[in-house]
Automatic annotation (TrEMBL), chains A, B:
Belongs to the acyl-CoA dehydrogenase family. Keywords: FAD, Flavoprotein, Oxidoreductase. This is 3-methylmercaptopropionyl-CoA dehydrogenase. The keyword rRNA processing does not apply. Residues 282-451 form the Acyl-CoA dehydrogenase/oxidase C-terminal domain. It comes from Hoeflea halophila. It comes from the Bacteria. Residues 80-158 form the Acyl-CoA dehydrogenase/oxidase N-terminal domain. Its EC number is 1.3.99.41.
Length: 598, 598
């Protein structure tokens, strides 16, 4: 039986000591999240994750979802009840607008607590996760009528939401999509077409499902400029909010997937289903991107969360499994063998995972805080700065944390030897589940292109310059602090590689865009290495200061923090040089090979 | 439906042009493998792989094996018939001794052709693969009586073999094993105990199963010094070779695994089953290592083979999938979109996989040739040199090719976007199947320790010094060849990093073995990078020479070869510096963290 304990202490350290969460008390909702409230919310979220969601994770994987002949879908045993508890606890609306029944608490807090629940049960958390994305899109682009009609029920969790983008022939390139919308003259449209890979497209956990669907209005321009976004409820909703007839949208089949079996991934058929335009005609992609950007952060969090639970289980196994002896002589001579945690290679593996997990957590919360500031501050300069950074790092959060989350699930699985390959032990599921996060909401190659091709150059590179300045200033300000030298030196070296690579891109990719494409994935990971290194430097500084101020029983926590950060700087940060070397190689070799020669 | 075309041309290029296979015609069996025979064998092996085995691969994954109430096991539909074809074609005994019915052809040829079949159907090939290992152990350590009794039937494929090492509480540390053997006074033993993870432990493809079982003779010393190896037939065999009673050994259950569903992975229960000692009392581990070393090469080949089929399917998809436009302007303006192979990031991915596949193939065949020389040459110096190198690189073949085979299956899967996550498309299976190769026959961390802790220092480092000299000499001899500068420079730089890291280990790991453990995995991959880089340099030289001698319609093949080698030197070889940096960090940080602080 897999183990999991939500890392509440680490979250609190990041929020309170690293990010100085209390400094933002002037933002709406933050005052309600005083330190004791935050801790209580985290503890309760941890409890739900550990006690309610974790026990259903393997059940969900083994049972999967079942589609019946009437096109209804049943979720795994226990999912419905756990989802109900989640909704009744107010978790779905934790950060949603109080105007529609949400609690209006910080998105940062929502992010912190969601990590625990995703670790415990990714498949289950996807149902409310998609609803939260749909809520964000309706809140931003819907009419007041639409908001009043749909948001309260969705925030309550009685109705769930979906995103319908992909069609069999198009995913990344939505300009090719064919689902069509025919205006009915009464403000509504008839939507027809097929969508695939629709998470939570059909299930038995809610009274209604609110599909957000990209379609092309008859006569609209070709390509992405002719795409509109529609609300298509599974069951029609009257003006008074009452449920009416079934709309002709149904689940044609469930996909057989590598993982996330507990989530219903549907082929959805729209047969002249009634839909309502949300946002402007032909501006659907923009509206969908509200959902998508939030969803990308959510998927990055999934990578982070999978890395965490995989780590915890690998540690538990490494402590228990007796096999062989320490290279430096038996550590437990009274036992038949030493636990494998005595071995350096096992420790190297575990510390690698952990060094990313802790920095990844800080990076997620740092980013979530930017989102809160961008959405809630009334100081224009703060909004712009936060929004710039949020936009800049969103593809890094998504691409890097999910690549690493998967890699680390694989590394953790390896600690189990043969048992890691047996489903009963649970490690295979983390690997299989984590794999999807690298793909959906824009495959990681697309994230890398988004970073290099769009985000870097936006507003004349304002965001990236601000980021470099922030990191550079940190190194400069702390360069004389001997306790931090190790961290600032490592960070500075990484930053230099990143800046040089950015410069290389500016000089070589404008005229030859293939050079940007050839560099993109390495650049994204280089950016991730530096960002996570920055998080380590911030954490090291906070740990040193906290220790100086009296650690209050946290000595071991702080010592471990500094040690894991040291490991990051020694073993992981040097990868920036390799990434830079690859980037500067350019596109020539890979473009020279003729297509037919592959 | 997944595609696969066996890379016969590439194999021939490696055998004929790179390794100069014809130079070894004086070795037994090699004369029978003249160039035209080799080509015919490869073509026929390719046909069986493509036409017989490939169509059963997904079936095997979906159906899996079934254990019935009587403890019998049924393999997936079609497996039995395909196995029969394989045996009737003489493939099982291709390289086995003619004395017992084998064809006595080179192991190198067996390796070449096995790659194709493993690509096509890993699970199916495991059945004969384990038999070949058991044949090797009996041939080396069995009595004449045992050889005569078991080998002909096994080489014919009528009986299959297994390796029984792992028990629930021990895998890596076999010294802990508990299965016991009680002498019966008539030369036989009663074997009792439970073995787990036994591939092909029970199935319906052969008339009998010959289990090789590690057990402890009553009263034997504790630890590895008290382990003996036994032959335990599923069905007793009379002196005349006739089948008799059922031996009390049976499959208790099948493991539910992440992949290789077509292979029966059994829990085997031995209840006073009759067994026969093979080799000497208490020398079982040594006898088993004959099997294990060959099996490790076979598992390395599995990594290689998975990388190849994953690559081919990713290329096919990248050519067909229309999505988006080239960054440098539409390449197929008449189509709705360009195929994704126009994108640099897709090409970077594909070329990365291919650069390892082609070098991996050369490395496999180079190693197999060493094995042939070591086993067949009558020139003592040649035997010693070949045996040294074979021993040295076995953990590198196993550890590096399987780590990379898995990574590359994941990268190939990524090319498919969402479709890669859907089982129907087949990419998930390659990932799930490839995962096991990193684990079994000694998890890759154990391979790394074997390399650093045992192989490096053997005979005063004679093998590694010989290898460094061979690679260094190659660089030196070809340094003035301008067409090869790119390759020799890259290789030399990698070699320098490897030599420096080896020196660091000699200076730092003798007194502090934890430094060896902390370096082991990075060192193994550093070794792999240089070895594969050496293969690229050899291939580049062969390509340049062949081109100069008149390419005879192979111009495109040779041009692509040189280009992919260039890619390896530009993008992959620089990783040696990172590995060196990590190695030189030492064990201190990872050992400092208290066990309870993980």
């Amino acid at each position: 039986m897999p183990v999991f304990k939500a890392p509440v202490d680490d979250t609190l350290f990041i929020l309170n000591d690293v990010l100085g969460y209390e400094r933002y008390m002037n933002l709406p909702g933050f005052a309600d999240a005083s330190p004791d409230i935050v801790e209580a919310v985290l503890q309760e979220g941890a409890r739900i994750a550990e006690e309610v969601m974790l026990p259903l994770n393997q059940v969900g994987d083994q049972e999967g979802c079942v589609r019946h002949d009437d096109a209804s879908v049943t979720t795994p045993k226990g999912f419905k009840e756990a989802y109900k508890q989640y909704c009744e606890g107010g978790w779905l609306g934790l950060a949603a607008s109080p105007e529609y029944g949400g609690q209006g608490l910080p998105y940062t807090l929502h992010t912190a607590v969601s990590e625990y629940m995703i670790s415990a049960n990714l498949s289950l958390l996807m149902y409310p996760g998609l609803t939260q994305g749909a809520v964000a899109a309706i809140a931003e682009h819907g009419t007041d009528e639409q908001k009043n009609k749909f948001l309260p029920k969705m925030i309550e969790g009685k109705w769930t939401g979906t995103m319908n983008l992909t069609e069999p022939h198009c995913g990344t390139d939505l300009g090719l999509l064919r689902t069509k919308a025919v205006p009915q003259g009464d403000g509504s449209y008839k939507i027809s077409g097929q969508k695939i890979f629709i998470s939570a497209g059909e299930h038995d956990m809610s009274d209604n499902i609110i599909h957000l669907v990209l379609a092309r209005i008859e006569g609209a321009p070709e390509g992405v400029k002719g795409i509109s976004l529609f609300i298509v409820p599974k069951i029609m909703v009257g003006d008074d909010g009452s449920l009416g007839d079934r709309n002709p949208v149904s689940c044609g089949s469930l996909e057989e997937k590598m993982g996330i079996h507990g989530n219903a991934t549907c082929v959805m058929n729209y047969d002249e289903a009634t839909g309502y335009l949300i946002g402007k005609e032909n501006a659907g992609l923009k509206a969908m991107f509200v959902m998508m950007n939030e969803a990308r952060l959510g998927v990055g969090l999934q990578g982070q969360a999978m890395g965490e639970i995989a780590y915890q289980n690998a540690v538990a196994y490494a402590r228990e499994r007796l096999q062989g002896r320490s290279l430096s002589g038996a550590k437990f001579p009274d036992k038949k063998a030493d636990p494998i945690i005595v071995h350096p290679d096992v420790r190297r593996t575990l510390m690698t995972i952990r060094a990313f997990n802790e920095a990844g957590r800080a990076f997620m919360l740092w980013t979530a805080l930017k989102s809160d500031i961008a959405h809630k501050s009334d100081v224009e300069a703060d909004v712009q700065e936060a929004d710039d950074l949020l936009n800049l790092v969103t593809p890094v959060v998504k691409g890097v944390l999910t690549d690493k989350g998967f890699d680390h699930a694989v590394m953790a699985q390896q600690m189990f030897g043969g048992h890691g390959y047996i489903e009963e032990w649970g490690m295979s599921q983390y690997v299989r589940d984590a794999r999807i996060a690298m793909i959906y909401e824009g495959a990681n190659g697309i994230q890398a292109l988004d970073l290099v091709g769009r985000k870097l150059g936006q507003n004349g590179g304002r965001a990236v310059m601000a980021f470099f300045k922030e990191v550079g200033d940190f190194c400069e300000e702390n360069r004389n602090n001997e306790e931090l030298t190790l961290y600032t030196k490592g960070l500075k070296k990484g930053l230099n590689d990143l800046q040089a690579s950015t410069m290389w891109l500016m000089q070589n990719a404008m005229a030859k865009p293939d050079n940007a494409g050839a560099a993109s994935t390495d650049y994204m990971h280089l950016f991730g290495l530096v960002t996570l290194g920055y998080m380590w430097a911030l954490m090291a500084k906070a740990a040193v200061e906290k220790r100086a101020a009296g650690a209050n029983g946290k000595e071991e926590f702080l010592a471990a923090k500094l040690l894991v950060g040291k490991f990051y700087m020694e073993r992981i940060m040097p990868e920036t040089a390799l990434r830079k070397t690859r980037i500067e190689t350019g596109a020539e070799t890979m473009m020279e090979l003729a297509e037919e020669a592959f």
